[in-house]
């Protein structure tokens, strides 16, 4: 019997995402790979680079025929507060290495780590995918993911929601709220106003408005904004991505008025309804930290949490990066930020948030 074949040699390089043919090749590879996510798409890397001013380094592996065998989106992120990190994928909850042959995973990971050293990034973060190698630390206790199937219609969707939360949704459906979806400038403006107030209230800085605009521009018909209004005033809003029959409500929030109006409950139910019209079969509620209010909220909707595996590698003498607002050492800053006048938070926030990644 023949001995197992060694992994075939591959060529590793940084892709030119300014080349439309290159982007199309990568996009097709990501689409066909069973573990592909929107955060692996070139559109995501380009939108993040333009929207936050961070640099993309999209790693690809090719065989001797020039066929793609692996991809890894990388974002070089700099923050004057938190330092430099090379992340896969920057500003995404997913990422990591996509490869047809698991034997080239370590080759790609080593190439990415060498790139991090060249870029003077002391830390690499990989959000999902296979373990890059034995040198990497694994964290599967911090974040939870929430995904489930969409029901066939509104009645079935209501019945799929646990009783207590279902009652809240029914009340929200009876409230006089106006719903709109789109991706025009007015939609982005309404979404940004709501989202900025929402994260300020939580004590965290808001991302640059350009990030949302660029994501909507790059994803085209595969992204939109759903806005909930009361008496013509936006009170809840969510920017969602649509990918391979899955809806990803990614950036969402509500104003202080949203709670009493149950506008967030209405928003997510309306998004489920809207996603079905776009042919979606699954609803990805995103990630939340273990033990937090957002995680409990998603469980109340009937979503079963599943641990997410993230990996990091830290240069000798350096420390892992932790820019999480739930880190106790930032508790004072979070409290102070939540009390800032909105106009100050909206001017200062993007300068900080564009380096969080």
From TrEMBL:
InterPro entries named among the record's database cross-references: Acyl_CoA_acyltransferase, BioF2-like_GNAT_dom, PEP-CTERM_FemAB-rel, PG_Glycine_Bridge_Synth
Pfam family, one: Acetyltransf_6
Transmembrane segments: none
Residues of the BioF2-like acetyltransferase domain: 166-298
Matches recorded under NCBIfam families: pepcterm_femAB
Stored PANTHER family: LIPID II:GLYCINE GLYCYLTRANSFERASE
Protein name listed in UniProt: FemAB-related protein (PEP-CTERM system-associated)
Taxonomy of the source species: Bacteria, Pseudomonadati, Pseudomonadota, Alphaproteobacteria, Sphingomonadales
């Amino acid at each position: 019997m023949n001995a197992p074949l060694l992994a075939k040699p591959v060529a590793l390089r940084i892709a030119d995402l300014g080349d439309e043919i290159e982007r199309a090749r990568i996009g097709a590879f990501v689409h066909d790979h069973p573990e592909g996510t929107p955060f692996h798409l070139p559109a995501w890397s380009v939108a993040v680079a333009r929207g936050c001013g961070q640099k993309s380094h999209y790693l690809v592996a090719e065989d001797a025929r020039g066929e793609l065998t692996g991809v890894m989106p990388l974002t070089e992120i700099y923050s004057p507060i938190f330092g430099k990190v090379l992340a896969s994928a920057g500003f995404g909850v997913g990422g990591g290495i996509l490869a047809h042959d698991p034997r080239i995973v370590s080759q790609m990971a080593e190439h990415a780590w060498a790139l991090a050293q060249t870029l003077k990034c002391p830390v690499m973060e990989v959000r999902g995918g296979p373990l890059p190698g034995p040198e990497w630390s694994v964290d599967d206790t911090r974040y939870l993911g929430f995904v489930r199937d969409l029901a066939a219609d509104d009645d079935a969707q209501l019945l799929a929601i646990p009783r207590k939360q279902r009652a809240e949704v029914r009340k929200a459906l009876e409230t006089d709220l106006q719903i709109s979806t789109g991706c025009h400038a007015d939609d982005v403006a309404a979404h940004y106003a709501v989202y900025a107030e929402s994260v300020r209230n939580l004590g965290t800085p808001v991302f640059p408005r350009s990030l949302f605009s660029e994501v909507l521009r790059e994803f085209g018909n595969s992204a939109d904004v759903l806005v909930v209004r009361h008496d013509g005033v936006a009170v809840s809003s969510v920017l969602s991505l649509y990918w391979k029959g899955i809806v990803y409500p990614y950036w969402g929030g509500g104003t202080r008025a949203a709670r009493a109006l149950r506008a967030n409950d209405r928003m997510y139910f309306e998004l489920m309804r809207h996603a079905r019209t776009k042919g979606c079969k699954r609803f990805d509620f995103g990630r939340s930290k273990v033990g937090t209010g957002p995680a409990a909220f998603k469980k109340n909707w009937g979503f079963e949490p599943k641990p997410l595996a993230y990996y990091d590698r830290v240069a000798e003498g350096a420390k892992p990066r932790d820019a999480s607002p739930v880190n106790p050492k930032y508790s004072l800053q979070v409290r102070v930020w939540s009390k800032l006048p909105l106009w100050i938070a909206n001017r200062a926030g993007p300068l900080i948030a564009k380096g969080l990644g």
